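Appendix B, Record 12. Input sequence as logged:
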Amino acid sequence: MTDNSDGSSAHGAGSARTSLRGRWREALVGARGGASGPDPLPYADNLLARWAEPQRRYHTTAHLVAVLDHIDTLAAYAADADAVRLAAWFHDAVYRPDRSENEERSAALAERALPEAGVPAEVTAEVARLVRLTVTHDPADGDTNGEVLCDADLAILAAPPQEYAAYAAQVREEYGFVPDDAFREGRAAVLRQLLGLPRLFRTPHGVDRWAPRARQNLSTELELLSR
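Logged structural output:
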């Protein structure tokens, strides 16, 4: 019997990349508002290379796909769904687990790349604002674009227990350079910050369908960290 596992895996990865390039093109063309501009695909390829960097375990193209899928679910709540989708592409485009300025550097990347790609200044500014908002995941009331992006980014918190446990393990791998005691302390602080938010999710979909399970997952992980 011939072993086709490697070929199948490569085909699957290629198909996923093609799909993501198409999704980037649609969002970028939508953000341009019908105006012409440079070929979108080199920009997609640059971003996909960033999302595939070796230091990533959770913040990978799989996370990007998940966030884009959740944005599609929540798109009706957003004032500008294409801007939110572009923000998803950029929100972890710069990711170094040992640095604290990832969101700022990701926003600055958007501010450089999007005007070159033909995106109007006001949309570029909105994308960069949304990327910076993922520092706190605490959009202001009425910030519908921010609500959709933050809910989509945090949706993993509402995953079934086994999937949530895999997510938590991947986060620990990304911070493998941090000693156990320091990681537990830092991770617990993040979980408490999330649990302390008046509303963990802001869209009606997130409030109704994601919030209860997310709070249960966060509380369970916090309890496990304290043992």
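The longest helix spans residues 5-32.
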